[in-house]
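Hi R.,

As promised on Friday, here is the backbone we talked about, encoded as structure tokens. Could you run it through your design pipeline when you get a chance and send me back a sequence?
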């Protein structure tokens, strides 16, 4: 009882940390799910993808010491996040030249592929966030509880971002820039063993990108006569 009395005050800290570090994650997941071009499929993909992501996070937490010591996994996570950023740059021009002229979105992605992409994207982000969470507490139940609450919040935040991506011009680009920064951070921390930027730097960078992302609203489409 005394131990839990000391540990429970850390739970809000872990949850807040999860939320602050996953704003860019939420935008990336929303952008991936939005490729379904169908609100019902987007919701189902988020539900299934994030459910799988939670179990992958738990596995990372249970194997945290091994994961943090296994450099190739961190490298692959960083490369994957950079690939997400670059693929966004490559796909965007083709999406803007929609011959149908209906919505400007590229063709819908396979539902199964979207779920896998959602799970892998969250897993890549988790390599960074789990390290931060474990640094605060080594109590597995506490860290897993914080991760569970964070994933539930992430699900609803991602749903909001799907709608916001349709409204704000720069939001998707801001999210993918944040994704690229996390990928670069993971890779640089491997190449330069002493490279470990403080968390406040990461939070400030993401905050500035979010401010830019919400700075410009898209013009509403006119009604056809």
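Update: got your reply. Pasting your designed sequence below so it's all in one thread:
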């Amino acid at each position: 009882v005394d131990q839990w009395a000391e540990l429970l005050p850390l739970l809000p800290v872990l949850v807040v940390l999860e939320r602050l570090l996953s704003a860019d994650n939420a935008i990336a997941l929303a952008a991936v799910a939005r490729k379904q071009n169908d609100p019902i499929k987007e919701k189902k993909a988020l539900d299934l993808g994030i459910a799988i992501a939670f179990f992958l996070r738990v596995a990372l937490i249970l194997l945290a010491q091994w994961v943090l010591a296994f450099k190739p996994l961190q490298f692959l996570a960083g490369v994957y996040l950079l690939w997400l950023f670059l693929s966004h740059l490559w796909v965007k021009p083709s999406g803007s030249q929609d011959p149908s002229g209906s919505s400007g979105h590229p063709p819908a992605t396979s539902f199964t592929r979207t779920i896998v992409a959602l799970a892998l994207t969250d897993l890549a982000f988790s390599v960074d966030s789990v390290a931060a969470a474990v640094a605060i507490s080594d109590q597995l139940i506490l860290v897993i509880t914080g991760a569970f609450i964070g994933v539930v919040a992430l699900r609803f935040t991602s749903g909001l971002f799907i709608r916001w991506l349709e409204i704000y011009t720069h939001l998707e680009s801001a999210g993918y820039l944040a994704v690229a920064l996390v990928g670069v951070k993971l890779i640089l921390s491997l190449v330069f063993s002493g490279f470990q930027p403080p968390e406040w730097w990461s939070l400030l960078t993401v905050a500035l990108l979010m401010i830019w992302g919400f700075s410009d609203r898209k013009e509403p489409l006119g009604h056809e006569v």
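One thing I noticed while checking it: The first helix runs from residue 2 to 7.

Thanks again,
M.
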